[in-house]
From TrEMBL:
<protein>
    <submittedName>
        <fullName>Ferritin-like metal-binding protein YciE</fullName>
    </submittedName>
</protein>
<dbReference type="InterPro" id="IPR010287">
    <property type="entry name" value="DUF892_YciF-like"/>
</dbReference>
<dbReference type="Pfam" id="PF05974">
    <property type="entry name" value="DUF892"/>
</dbReference>
<dbReference type="InterPro" id="IPR012347">
    <property type="entry name" value="Ferritin-like"/>
</dbReference>
<dbReference type="InterPro" id="IPR009078">
    <property type="entry name" value="Ferritin-like_SF"/>
</dbReference>
């Protein structure tokens, strides 16, 4: 039976893989958001935050005398690559990506809440603090996406209507 410390280490490896997945997914979207400058800027900012999140989790693992899981990281990146590439083939990619990002942020929020509790149980206050810091940034990103979803939808629908009118001519 795994100890709480071993389980926390496993979950931290999962969190690192989750951040790797987020990075691959966000970087794949970023280059295709030229028509949505506010969204692109916020995605770019969150890429930098996510890179830092991955480093913070790596540091927690190292402090706990363990390392990331290359297999979990590779699997997460592969999953994200598939998600990113699938968006190229749909006309409403920006809407589907916004939906996926909002959903992913909430998975990260739940993960960091659970990690905070596990770190608390094993008495790892530094990991708990790191997870709390990351949690605040994930919540801020989810909130931003929710607050700007209407703008993305309106812009997308306006651009689609304009493109449809141009095609008729």
């Amino acid at each position: 039976m795994a100890t709480a410390d071993t389980t926390l280490n496993d979950w931290l490896r999962d969190a690192h893989a989750m951040e790797q997945q987020a990075l691959t997914m966000l970087k794949g979207q970023e280059s295709r958001l030229n028509s949505y400058p506010d969204l692109r800027q916020r995605i770019s900012q969150h890429i930098r935050e996510t890179e830092r999140h991955a480093e913070l989790i790596r540091a927690c693992l190292e402090r706990r005398n363990t390392d990331t899981s290359g297999l979990k990281d590779a699997g997460a990146k592969l999953t994200a690559l598939g998600q990113s590439l699938s968006g190229i083939f749909v006309s409403d990619e920006v809407v589907k990506c916004s939906l996926a990002n909002y959903t992913f942020e909430h998975m990260e929020i739940a993960s960091y809440k659970m990690l905070m509790e596990a770190a608390n149980v094993v008495g790892d206050s530094e990991t708990e603090r790191v997870c709390e810091e990351i949690l605040a940034e994930e919540e801020a990103m989810a909130s931003w996406l929710a607050d700007h979803a209407g703008d993305v939808i309106r812009t997308f629908l306006q651009r689609s209507a304009t493109d449809a009118e141009s095609a008729k001519r």
